[in-house]
Batch of 2 targets.
Target 1
Amino acid sequence: MAFKLAMFPISYCARYNPETKSWSEKWIESDRIPYEELQKMGEDKQAAVYENRNALGLPAVSYTSQYGYGCFEGLKAFSHKDGKISIFRPEKNAARFANSMRGLYTPPFPEKKFVENCVEFIRKNAPLGYVPPYDSAWEKDSFATASAVYIRPFMNSEATIGVGIGVAPYVVICGTTVSTYFKGGNTKAITTKRIRANPYGTGNIKVASNYVISALAKKEAEDAGYMEVVYLDAVEHRFLQEGSSCNIFFVLKDKTLVTPELGDTILPGITRLSTIELAKAEGVRVEERPVPIDEVMANGIECFVTGTAAGITTIESITHEGKERVFNDRKPGELGSHLQHILKGTQYGAIPDTRGWNTIV
Ligand SMILES: *Cc1c(COP(=O)(O)O)cnc(C)c1O
């Protein structure tokens, strides 16, 4: 079943009413089939269940489906050893989601509702067995291959056919289980001539239309034998931007950690922010600034990309204009591994959460 999306049975759906300026909310309970029971069903039956869970009653023809006018979030929930479940920094995703909606000139979804209903989403689906229980085996590789819940809030527009601005958005919160994002094998990256985000464009908000170029460039990189693609800036084609949908970091020879500064072409990742905060707390010098590709091709000793899906993922090399720069003998670097250890440990409750990052469900 390569095409199934294993959605959880219960999803949240809200709709903005521009007349009353309020959100009407409901829970869509597609079924109450426990996870264990679903695993025992035949493939066709299972596929029908998943298809039904995805039929959320959104308009097929909308600004979103026709023009990519929509936005989304991605955040994760983690099982702890003591049976608790936590969501990682949901208030940050709530703020970014509202900002994406404002960026689309559509009424923003209230941040409080966002957090409350992400929590409620887990509370409703957990009793049916959809949150993978804590497994001590995850500790062996510092949770690198552990499972988690991926929560996907998104906004779609109302039904419409011409190009325009949505005034009555839908907001859905749904989710599925995930394990590792990058599928093993090589971790090589290559720069692309494609442009992910332009100045004065939408690169700093998480809008649907940004991800077509990402998908194309990533396919081109994969077809050429690389795992990841790296974007350069639109104007000079000289400064690093991001990975396919991850932020990018380098450790330089003098041990400074550098990452491109935020601006209108960089997505402000919450893993990026957390990585910077953790590194600073470890006494690492961190610089957010323009990062020329030539600098890291000459001076980079470690590279990793960050994102909710990817965590902190090592990049073994970058190929640019036919030349390959290998980082740390193709092995995970010291700093990236250390930060990954703290980040994942905090998320899974193995390391005390001293920063208030975990919202307990
Ligand atoms: C979502 C995303 C990221 C990572 O953001 P996180 O909040 O860390 O998950 C980075 N770049 C792009 C383009 C993204 O869409």
Target 2
Amino acid sequence: MQFQNSLAFAQQLDEKDELRNYRKEFHFPQIAGKDVIYFTGNSLGLQPKMTQSYIDEVMNDWKELGVEGHFHANKPWWDYHERLAAPLAKIMGAQEEEISVMNTLSVNLHLLMVSFFRPTKSRYKILCEEKAFPSDQYLLQSQVRFHGLNPNETIVEVKKRKGEHFWRTEDILAKIEELGDELALVFIGGVNYYNGQVFDMQTITQAGKSVGAYVGWDLAHAAGNIALKLHDWEVDFAAWCSYKYMNSGPGNASGVFIHQKHLGQNDMPRFEGWWGTKKETRFLMKPIFEPMDTADAWQISNPPVLALAPYLASLQLFEAVGMEALIKKRNTIVAYLEFILNEIANEVSGTFEIITPKDRGCQLSVFLHGQGRPLFDYLMKQGVIADWREPNVIRLAPAPFYCSYEDMFRFGQLLKEGILAQID
Ligand SMILES: *Cc1c(COP(=O)(O)O)cnc(C)c1O
């Protein structure tokens, strides 16, 4: 498609956009009385308007039924979480039984490490990307120390090449090959939070498995953003949060995936609690743990229903639209944003560059040369909510559910004004 950097052209794209009506399904923050241009769906997705009614339903059931709500609420609480498994399975490319929703992301990753990081004398190393999301670094380091090992000798980071802003799959595969029998776990963020790169999860997973390692993915920036086939790729485990592209509210619950082949095993090392034991006999309060045959075996506590309600609401929107339509619009709107950025970069001659590689999802990361922070502050004042990462990167994620092509055009105009104002 031949793009144009004009309001009329952007509006034409909006008219043809099959998802244009979904914008109205979300609450937009306002700055100076106008809806903002929202680029931070990769950090905290906007609130769907129907979320309130899902929370109200739980509050009302609690008000009217008290403890009876566990079994007699409109959506009974004791198995509320099970309603999320089917829609999530579609989004993650999983079987329903491979999905559970519980706790929060970093907590779940720790719990999954109990099962999938079991170092031995000879096989103990972890492979990850350099400068992983800080929580992932802390989690790996503390897990390693917990096992009495030294992080410096255990955690191996794949580096970007000098002068490049992205990781090369071939470098990751070479490292896996090199570590071979020593490699216990490959653990990477499927979509990098900083540069927006989408890793070749299928190829990397296969390579990890071929040397006998477990392979797990942090999908915080992948869930609800890119096409996933966790089951077919034979990923061992994955976890993600629900508040980024999944629009389920600040700090909300996390989903986990555990491959079918690890389910239904009594001897799986795992931290256990009463909600992981078989539903049928749970309330007999027996002293012996009998795991559920599903990923719910990893559930420790009874579900946080007030947190799951907004997640369930949001998943209804995903059900209605489907990942395919979201990805189709995502590709076009990100390409349009890229086009506009390049147009502006030409006009203001090289004050910034896009560092996101072609393997990407919804996010473009823009590296600002020279004065970055004042420009970012200027944009915020003009009603653009974007996100700043040190030293000099603005992350822009035009979430296809609610961002418009007109937003992209208007952003371009503001960016140009802002840069010219800084230069003057
Ligand atoms: C957002 C994000 C997290 C956040 O973890 P919480 O436990 O939900 O605070 C973790 N890892 C990655 C890669 C992220 O992008």
